[in-house]
Specification:
Helix content is 59%, strand content 3%. By secondary structure, it is mainly α. The chain has a single domain, classed as Methane Monooxygenase Hydroxylase, Chain G, domain 1, CATH 1.20.58. The strands form 2 sheets. It has a two-stranded parallel sheet. It has a two-stranded antiparallel ribbon with strand order 2-3. The structure holds protoporphyrin IX containing FE. The site of protoporphyrin IX containing FE has 26 residues, from α6, α12 and α14. Belongs to the indoleamine 2,3-dioxygenase family.
Length: 351
């Protein structure tokens, strides 16, 4: 695929493709692999010629099977984070070394972006188990189990940050969207599916369901435009992930529970967990500053495998100010969840 994009032969090849029928695909894994493959081919097709001439129409041979498979999976017909990171790996050898299935032009920088994101996600999984333990423990007011579950979440968040430090990539994948994208103001027309172009946000790590699960568990509620954007990103997550975030959000509030019980130990454990999430978001903010904001459009054009396409939150000319406001707002809301009064009260008691 990378070779076909680089040599600008992909579009011609797609034009010769028959309309594929996805009816023989039955298992979830087959469908996810097909979504991943069609997502990568579609991105390559649309952006093959670079930022100035994106394809406005996705040919039926791609659009129709992509549409059908997406409907079966409950995912939108565009390359999502759940494709490019969560499903985009295979075992390289029996010892467990992993490799990517698909990548884009951009060599190691591009591959590094997907692999490091995947390592960050893998580190999140014990934390998700911890979140589930907390969720059950609140229902029976089991303080020890709540504490143990929260410790697992904190450890996960710390490992996620450690893995994040491996990111030395200036690839910016936020250009993979046909919504809020000045290059495709009306979106992309899916031939044979609809007569009107469709607006869709492409893969962004803002679609990471793990981070939104932790927000839901810790009762961190992002509001206004920031909250609306993050909630919209749930439409790009697998339905089961979306459901888990909603289940965690609908549970009795962990924060209220901690405020109502008089355990300064539990309060401290909760605060450590929130602080670990603040730390992770601060690290992310610095990474974004390093790779997108400080170098400006130059880095975007260097980093984007499709030769620099504008992004929604960091539009050309704003110097990244929208993006900084967004990421700082997410970080500040996280910080506000800290139970400060409670801590100072417990300090007074200790004195
Ligand atoms: C060089 C690497 C990275 C860059 C340049 C980057 C860039 C961005 C940008 C531009 C946004 C704003 C939303 C958007 O436009 O879609 C964003 C949001 C976000 N990113 Fe990244 N990102 C990087 C790596 C990662 C990684 C590895 C993760 C973790 C899996 C991550 C997690 C998030 C999350 C969760 C959000 C939503 C805001 C939040 O909840 O804190 N990012 N990122």
């Amino acid at each position: 695929l990378t070779h076909l994009i680089e040599s600008r032969k992909l579009r011609d090849l797609v034009h010769k493709m028959p309309v594929l029928s996805p009816h023989l695909l039955s298992s979830h894994r087959e469908l996810r692999l097909a979504h991943l493959a069609l997502g990568f081919i579609s991105m390559g097709y649309v952006w093959q010629e670079g930022q100035h001439t994106p394809a406005q129409i996705l040919p039926k041979a791609l659009a129709w099977p992509f549409w059908l498979i997406s409907r079966r999976l409950g995912l939108p017909p565009i390359l999502t984070y759940a494709d490019s990171v969560l499903a985009n790996w295979k075992l390289k050898d029996p010892t467990g070394n992993m490799d990517l299935i698909f990548s884009f032009p951009g060599g190691d920088s591009c591959r590094g972006f997907f692999i490091v994101s995947m390592l960050v996600e893998m580190a999140a999984s014990p934390g998700i188990m911890g979140a589930l333990e907390v969720m059950h423990a609140i229902k029976i007011s089991d303080l020890t189990a709540i504490k143990n579950g929260l410790i697992k979440v904190t450890q996960s968040l710390k490992t996620m940050k450690e893995n994040f430090k491996l990111m030395h990539s200036n690839c910016c994948f936020t250009c993979f969207r046909w919504r809020d994208n000045p290059m495709l103001p009306r979106g992309v027309l899916y031939e044979g599916v609809s007569d009107e172009p469709i607006l869709l946000s492409g893969g962004s790590a803002a679609q990471s369901s793990a981070i939104q699960c932790f927000d839901a568990l810790l009762c961190i509620q992002h509001e206004d435009e920031t909250g609306a954007f993050l909630t919209r990103m749930r439409d790009y997550m697998p339905p089961a992930h979306r459901q888990l975030i909603e289940t965690l959000s609908a549970c009795p509030s962990l924060r209220d529970f901690i405020l109502s019980c008089s355990s300064s130990d539990l309060c401290h454990t909760y605060n450590s967990c929130v602080s670990a999430l603040v730390d992770l978001r601060n690290y992310h903010l610095n990474t974004v500053a390093k790779y997108i904001i400080v170098p400006g459009n130059h880095a975007q054009s260097m980093g984007c495998p499709f030769r620099g396409v504008g992004t929604a939150l960091n539009t050309t000319g704003t110097g990244g100010s929208n993006l900084v406001v967004f990421l700082k707002s997410v970080r500040n809301t996280t910080q506000k969840a800290l139970i400060l009064e409670r801590l100072s009260e417990s300090r007074k008691t200790q004195m």
